[in-house]
């Protein structure tokens, strides 16, 4: 006996997301993988392939993609993450020079005061802390990773592309079959 698939209603793309779909989307925008987001939304399966298939299917839905865009836009607006600001921050980190912040030599190390830093220099600073004890103290000064700043800048400019190796089942060679259709 052949079961009929349920007919899709015309308004299914317009209906609001259900609670599980909202949880899935919120997990995605906070950095969870698709499978973890699906688990957060209450989907359970011992079979990882089933989880993966369901997660990808959920992720590809037009309504899900629209809500993810809304969530990402709201986050970008909340934190003023414009393209210009992202490039400015990344550029500040990538072009930072420790000599703009610290002087060192035979007489010791001296930090510049925060009021002496330009806005671009201040964006490159990750941490400044000072501890004092009865025996003395320490000052810690740390810039954001210059390597990461250069890497991110190169990715944003399209100069660096992540490559991923794809293999077949159990690490075997992937077999690609090209099928030509008659015109």
Structure write-up:
The chain has two domains: 14-80, Arc Repressor Mutant, subunit A (Orthogonal Bundle); 83-156, no CATH class. A hairpin with a 2-residue loop joins β1 (102-105) and β2. It is an alpha+beta fold and 183 residues long. The model is unreliable at 1-10 (pLDDT under 50). It has a two-stranded antiparallel ribbon. It has a two-stranded antiparallel sheet with strand order 3-4. The chain contains seven helices and four strands; from the N terminus they run αααααββαββα.
State the strand order across the main sheet.
1-2
| Uncertain runs | 1-10
Spatial shape:
elongated
* Strand percent estimate: 5-15%
- What's the average pLDDT? 87
Output the helix-strand order: HHHHHEEHEEH
- Separation of the first and last Cα atoms: 35 Å
Task: Summarize the main sheet.
Answer: 2 strands, antiparallel
Class based on secondary structure composition and strand pairing: alpha+beta
Blueprint of the fold:
Layout lengths: L18 H11 L4 H7 L7 H13 L1 H17 L4 H12 L7 E4 L2 E4 L7 H6 E9 L2 E8 L2 H11 L27
Antiparallel strand pairs: 1-2, 3-4
Helix pairs in contact: 1-2, 1-4, 2-3, 5-7
Quick tags:
disordered N terminus, 7 helices, two-stranded antiparallel ribbon, Arc Repressor Mutant, subunit A, 4 strands, 183 residues, alpha+beta, 14% strand
Question: Brief description of this entry?
Answer:
By secondary structure, this protein is α+β, with helices and mostly antiparallel strands. It is 42% helix and 14% strand.
